[in-house]
Amino acid sequence: MDSKKLVNTKQQQNLIGTEHKTRWQKFEHILDISLQGAMVFTGLGLAVLIFAQVFMRYVLQSPFAGIEEVAILLAVWVYFIGMGYATKQRAHIHGGIVSLVVHDPYKIEMIRFVVSIVCFFTAFVFGCYAAKYGMFVLEKGRLSLYLQWPKVLWTASMIFGFLLMAGYFLLQIVNDFYAMLACKNQISNLENHSSKNTKD
């Protein structure tokens, strides 16, 4: 009877775990689509604005400086969104010298784990400084020169980008930790298997 209860509780725990996974996967999928859509929208908007400014400056001979402000706004947003998305895809610039020097897969996973921790704290610190600067700009009520838009719109892109990076680096820490444990278990299993074969 007790064993049946244990089996039922394990099944319930597995079901809860899969529900949490599917919810997280849905949220991650929605976030991915949102980031991709934002990058496409800001990139196309930036291209349209630059074309309009060139047309107004050289064809109509009447440039509007406000377009340049909006273009810079879109440029910083597409840059910082792309920075966070590149972190999620692990497509950010990194050196591959570790795999050339270190050949032990467990040590490689350990180095990746440590690097993810360092990157997380770096992105978090920069995000805190960006948030502090954003609060300063908001309190001062600074506005853009031509459109008189609040400058916090430009600063918010920096805050969002660094916090997005920090969040994805935190996920990478968890994934690298489990990969490191899996690699260690695999190595220990191979060693046990080889020792059994030598004994036989």
Tell me the strand percentage band: under 5%
Domain module count: 1
Class based on secondary structure composition and strand pairing: mainly alpha
**What is the typical, i.e. mean, pLDDT?**
82
Q: What gross morphology would you assign?
A: elongated
Distance between the termini: 41 Å
Number of helices: 5
Main β sheet profile: none
How many DSSP E strands? 0
Order of secondary-structure elements: HHHHH
Low-confidence stretches: 1-10
Any idea what the radius of gyration is? Answer: 25 Å
Task: Give keywords.
single chain; mainly alpha; disordered N terminus; elongated; about 85% helix; about 200 residues
Task: Please describe what this structure looks like.
There is one protein chain. This protein has 200 residues and is mostly helical. It has one domain. It is 85% helix and 0% strand. The protein contains five helices and no strands. Helix 4 packs antiparallel against helix 5. The longest helix is centred in the N-terminal third of the chain and has 57 residues. The relative contact order is 0.09. The N terminus is likely disordered.
Summarize the structure.
The protein contains five helices and no strands.
SSE inventory with pairings:
Blueprint: H1 2-58, H2 65-88, H3 97-101, H4 105-140, H5 152-199
Helix pairs in contact: 1-2, 2-5, 4-5
